[in-house]
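Risk register update: the risk of archive-format incompatibility is retired. Evidence:
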Amino acid sequence: MSRFAQGLGVEMTPPRYDGGHSLPTDNPATASSPTPEASVIIAYYKEPDLLARQLRALSLQENAPRFEVIIADNEGSSILPDVVRPFHNELDVHTIDASDRSGQDHARNQGVAAARGTLIALCDQDDIVSPSWLAALVAPLRESDVLATGPLRLDRINSRISWLTGQGLDASADPPSPVLSVPVIYLDYLPAAVGCNIGMRRSTFLALGGFDETLPGDEDSDLTWRCIENGIPLQVEPAAIVDYRLRSTAREVFHQRRTYMIYQTAFWVRSKSLGRPIRGMSFRWTITETLRLAPASLQSLLKGPDEQYAFAAHAGNILGNLEGQLKYRVIPATRNRLLEFRQSRRSR
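Archived output:
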């Protein structure tokens, strides 16, 4: 995309989340190296080769402030020390155990709690940060209390069909390079940053309670919205680019899209309960689209791998939405109506 999101703020003060736990405001770390200005947080789980590539990218940062890298191990990995060891001469890198509770949001929260820097930057183990990433991401944090983010580049480390599908384009499209994705309005409410490219003041992150670990997913959208609702604008820094890794096979993209849509429904229900003016969600539409999948599936089998990949992504979206609506909307609403009916019968 060629247009960048602008900082936004709204006059709302919703309930503060504590993420299902209490985040410490003091820093327990006792590292002997000089105190960094920034702390880069990476949640780790079972991808040692990709983590090594990300650490290499971090070692090549240009004009960056003094920073440390904290790897929050959500796996309890026995090989992680071997992955990190080659980078000790190039990076101030530490690992912490975050395997007491599963989930990327938990690992990120634990990483921030252990951080020594006053500024934090979040990236993922399977992506690749650009050389200008950290310097660009933390620069606005020195002047203003904002949530900083940057573009996700899609066309450098992914197949053509994966980034075309990710952008909602068909195989005939020819967008200009580089192909960048930036925050857009989500659920017709506010823009949402992606958790693999976020910069904040550590004190602000802790004051907001960090990532909400009671959500099954979409915790980065939730954090972004809570920032904006509390007067902390979202600011896109064009040079804070991350090469974002997409799923490479039809099976992988189906699973990812299905999971994302289940998470989106849970987040939708939470947001509605908070009174956020988000768009509606139609169960009838989902049923209609689900019924259309069977013939479309047969047609995709007669086509090439690109069409099958695109169909898998679409099917994952629809079936994930169906599963999410059943789990978080239809079944709870039906259960509540039955309870109300039984109570009304007893009161007669």
